[in-house]
Amino acid sequence: QVHLVESGGGLVQAGGSLRLSCVVSGHAFSDHITGWFRQAPGKEREFVAAITWSGGNPIYDASVRGLFTIAVDNGKNTVYLQMNSLKPEDTGVYYCASHGRSSGWAQGYWGQGTQVTVST
Known about the structure:
Elements: E1 3-7, E2 10-13, E3 18-25, E4 32-39, E5 46-52, E6 59-60, E7 68-73, E8 78-83, E9 92-100, E10 109-110, E11 114-119
Parallel strand pairs: 2-11
Antiparallel strand pairs: 1-3, 3-8, 4-5, 4-9, 5-6, 7-8, 9-10, 9-11
């Protein structure tokens, strides 16, 4: 059974930073891609960033490129999302997800989410 547990969310002022963590267990890490999504109130869930467990090929949504950084610590089975220069529009529930190379996000595994609130 695959489990993903997010942490690190909270309330921060605009311009501040947060680091989210996602601890993953139960799958062959080297065979999966893990990423972050977010969902703002009243909006659909959207892709933020993803990375392979080798740490290579990070990809970002254009709205966060240069501001957010995704990284993996294989020793801790953890994927991080460092978020800098946060804006009120970054507010939402942030979800960690993981899928195998032969499947997609819809067929993958998801965490319960962690709330990020950016105040003005």
